[in-house]
């Protein structure tokens, strides 16, 4: 399949600032200061479910033909490839082809398929977002980080297979935690390589704000981003801002959280890569007047989030991704 042929927008900076809260489709969310032109992926590249078949190498005795059927959906397009194989009988008068040598046969057996194999995405989750490409992003996104990140899985917005987040994880102790996603117990970073995400969202910082200098936090966080890119060089990394806490929360103040978020935003600016994006999750959820986490967005303790907050985060995130080159990079990762 060919790559994405046209871009709806030119490359935008990796850092974006959320400037206002609006109501869209009954969901309160933030809008980016950058122009947010709607972007729909081309039919052949926006597949939510990719049903892929490998074409066998042609021989003198058989030929393989393929036909492609494309079905449009509201947000994205699903492509299904079917194959039919016809067998020809070699005439009796034709001289038989000499059998290949053992070395040649072995080489043919290990030959790469003629078409690239693409990932198949088929997961059950609670849909979110108003972008025409929401399902495209939600099928692929992997959550990496702490208990706030784990909420995406706990409330059904990402499947188990795409959850690399759990309670108590911080930048400072990341190496102490493991997951088993089918390849045995591995570190969180090694699991990134095993899962091989096209899109990864990092939620870290809430367990670091009381024990780290701001500069030390940003430096160690960058090492994590670098390690993720070493494991999956063609992934897109979204650095999520630390989310706000309620006004009555005694764990940490929102002034401190905003200071750490500023350091994260600067870190992403310094990386200066279209594959590393800063997402202002704090402003999406904060009350515009108090700058604190409203009670209706809280999970009950003033720190963790309720289900609706995760829907709002994905809604704004997916619309933001439409203003970047993320969709093109995801398609590149998936082999299109």
Structure overview:
This protein starts with 17 loop residues before the first strand and ends with a helix. It has nine helices and eleven strands. The protein has a single domain, classed as SGNH hydrolase (Rossmann fold). Strands 6-5-9-10-11 form a five-stranded parallel beta sheet, with helices on both faces. The protein has a two-stranded antiparallel ribbon with strand order 1-2. The chain has helices at 102-109, 134-140, 147-154, 188-195, 214-231, 254-271, 281-285, 307-321, 326-333; strands spanning 18-24, 27-32, 62-72, 77-87, 141-145, 163-165, 178-180, 185-187, 199-203, 236-240, 276-279. Mean pLDDT is 76; it is low at 1-17 and 19-116. Helix 4 (188-195) runs parallel beside helix 5 (214-231) and helix 5 packs across helix 6 (254-271). The protein is α/β, with parallel strands linked by helices.
In terms of DSSP E residues, the strand content is 15-25%
Number of helices: 9
Whole-number mean pLDDT: 76
The neighbouring-strand order within the major sheet is 6-5-9-10-11
Q: Using only CA atoms, what is the Rg?
A: 24 Å
Shape: globular
What would CATH call the homologous superfamily? SGNH hydrolase
Helix proportion: 25-40%
* End-to-end CA span: 5 Å
Main pleated sheet: 5 strands, parallel
Number of domains: 1
| Uncertain regions spanning at least 5 consecutive residues | 1-17, 19-116
Which fold does the CATH topology refer to?
Rossmann fold
CATH class: Alpha Beta
Please state the second-level CATH architecture. Answer: 3-Layer(aba) Sandwich
SS-derived structural category: alpha/beta
SSE pattern, N- to C-terminal: EEEEHHEHEEEHEHEHEHHH
Number of strands: 11
